Amino acid sequence: MATAAANTSPLGVGGTLTLIRHAQTIANVAHVLQGSTDSPLSPLGESQLECLGDCSLWKQLHEALLRGDCVEIYHSPLGRTSRTAQVAHEAMRRHILTSTEPANAAACGERLSISARSALQERDFGFRECTRRGFHQTGFPKGIGRGESNDAWMRRVQMEGKWLMSRAELRHTESNTTGKRTLGRENEGNESKKAKNDGATIGRVESRTSYALSAPQAFVKSSSKNCTGKQIDQKQEESCIESKPISAWQPLPLHASSSAKAAALPKPSIASISQPFPDLAALPRRHLVIVTHGLFISSFFKLCMPAGNQMSVPFADNTALYTLVRHEIIPGLVGRDEDPLMPATTSTSTSIPAALSEQAKRCKLVLQRTNDTSHLHEQARTTRAGRGRLGEPDPKQRSLKDMWKKR
Length: 407
Description:
It comes from Ceraceosorus bombacis. GO terms for molecular function: fructose-2,6-bisphosphate 2-phosphatase activity. It holds the Pfam family His_Phos_1. This is PHOSPHOGLYCERATE MUTASE. Keywords: Hydrolase. The structure is a single chain. By secondary structure, this protein is of the alpha/beta class. It has a domain at 13-185 and 283-332 and 364-403: Phosphoglycerate mutase-like (Rossmann fold), CATH 3.40.50.1240. Helix content is 33%, strand content 12%. The strands form two sheets. The protein has a six-stranded mixed β-sheet, sandwiched between helices. A two-stranded antiparallel ribbon has the order 4-5. The longest helix is centred in the first third of the chain and has 21 residues, at 79-99.
């Protein structure tokens, strides 16, 4: 795993991606498997949100807004993540109102956004939800159905992770799936056979969750040309991600189409290569803040990192931060005048995508924050080993892997 040393540019080059786990819930305290079932925050969780609002990350992102960058907050629609995301949004607004010149405050506010994405939701464990040692716990709703299969879960994380990495301008290579269990040609038939059974769970997840803060989005049916078939491009995948609720996910082929039609690429227009090349340093960047769940974060780092950037991270503590940035591979080659790979401003033969591709070749992803809970005071901390002040781990508690083990 790449570790980041102290540097003078905390946000690196290009955009950034910060993942945050929600604050502690009552179910966390009871060691109950939550999944897509909602649970109110515990008193310790409320204290963690107060500490999160004072995190130094918001000051850094506010400085990015002043430079003309954009800050986009995305969160799972579940209540525990929505509450955590609202704290992050309010902290950013507070910095804008108190530390920004009145003439610039409105512009900074327009470049700050918050929205829910159903693909960031926790995995649906079906009848296993709200259980401990395999038994349902009193005071929690009962889970129903078979839940989300492991293949469907990994596919959802991969597709959403791809979108997030592209949105933050961190993804310029194919995702690293070497040695990981992913859906290929051999599993597509099995997954399609499960479609009818999986379709029976549609609507069950929403009945146990606060689905979204905005108006309901249109369903993308499994028969849609955009979501099935052999030819699917990146824009079609992204449109599927943004329009489908969590329970409507259908399997999509991960391999590229081999047809001649799909391989054909549009020729660059004359206008695209005749315009003067702008200063890349002056282009606005996107800084994404993702408030989601611990299992999504760990699965994201296993499935969505580009080749050569394998990262092994600890499972996230409540309100822990993980920040991905892009750093220069060759130290010292930062400015345009010093970097031979960067074209001159007056060049008329290089397009913006080509220059960004060259820049990506000399950059690497760096995990700047790893399970960072430095914003929490001692009384608000929890640990995976013993959950902080909650006592020792239960030796009889079964792991998620054991739950799916055939008997």
